[in-house]
Amino acid sequence: MLNRFRLEFPSRPENVALARVTVAAFAAQLDPTVDELNDLKGAVSEAVANAIVHGYGNAPDGIVTVEGILYGDAIEVRVEDSGKGMEDVTRAMEPEFSTDPERLGLGFSFMQSFMDNVEVESSPDRGTRVIMRKQFARRH
């Protein structure tokens, strides 16, 4: 069975919670454990916060898109913005790298620790797409 959703919202910090709750509710169809659900919510929070803070520079008028797709016992979540993008994705994914000296630069590291696979597509002035996948344990 393939099921999916798409959600768009303004790049406002209060919408991080909306994204994480929506993805968690959608993933509940797969009967994940509490730990699996917490990992998923943590990764989604980091990806959406990155879009807001780094993609749009905290400007509230950008659009963040979150898509979820269920494949069997796995979920794929895509978080996309059309903000300023990144010149060097490889460097941006290094632990402790940040364009904002007030931030720790651990967002991608957290996403990678919470999910089975994280891919980032980005180019300057064209935005960023983060694609995350997680396989849930079979309990059927």
Provide structural commentary.
There is one protein chain. This protein has one domain: Histidine kinase-like ATPase, C-terminal domain (Heat Shock Protein 90, 2-Layer Sandwich), CATH 3.30.565. The chain is of the alpha+beta class and 140 residues long. Helix 1 packs antiparallel against helix 2 and helix 2 runs antiparallel to helix 4. It is built from four helices and five strands, in the order βααββααββ. The mean pLDDT is 88.
Brief digest:
This protein has a single domain, classed as Histidine kinase-like ATPase, C-terminal domain (Heat Shock Protein 90, 2-Layer Sandwich).
What CATH calls the topology is Heat Shock Protein 90
Task: Work out the radius of gyration.
Answer: 14 Å
What is the β-strand count?
5
Helix content: 25-40%
Characterize the main sheet: 5 strands, antiparallel
**Amino- and carboxy-terminal Cα gap:** 15 Å
| Secondary-structure element order, N to C | EHHEEHHEE
Low-confidence stretches: none
Q: Going by CATH, what is the homologous superfamily?
A: Histidine kinase-like ATPase, C-terminal domain
What class would the helix/strand composition place it in? Answer: alpha+beta
Q: What CATH architecture do you see?
A: 2-Layer Sandwich
Query: Rough shape?
Result: globular
At the first level of CATH, the class is Alpha Beta
Fraction in beta strands: 25-35%
